[in-house]
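Entry 12.
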Amino acid sequence: MLRLFAEEVDVSRQTVETGRVRIAKVTRARDHIVDELLARTNVEIERIPVGRVIDAIPAVRDDGELLVVPVVEETVVVERRLVLKEELHVRRVQTQERFRDTVKLRYQTAEVTRIPAQQPAGRSEQPAGPTKPNPEGT
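Predicted 3D structure (tokens):
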């Protein structure tokens, strides 16, 4: 009789620590120049005496850059009548000026440091150093 032999294999898995990673989030600040054109509207008020008798209160008129606000008063005579005492002419004057200032902008980077696992004597692998992204790329 002839004996036959066969090999068998038993496969299993186990977790092996190959190293650790430390991540530190760092907030930094950098100077950034703000250069913008600012718009401003100033008003000039001019009082125009009128002194005209009117029948009804006039409406406020907007003539583009000029806003006319009527000012009325009642006067007592033998009869009551409205007298347009004056008008306020409000003129809009647009100006522009250049605004330039340096402001602090904050940004964050992640610093990753690899910490190797405990290595048996004789193996010498260099750990990866900290990595820092370019702050100007954000």
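Annotation: The chain has a mean pLDDT of 82. The first strand starts at residue 19 and ends at 54.
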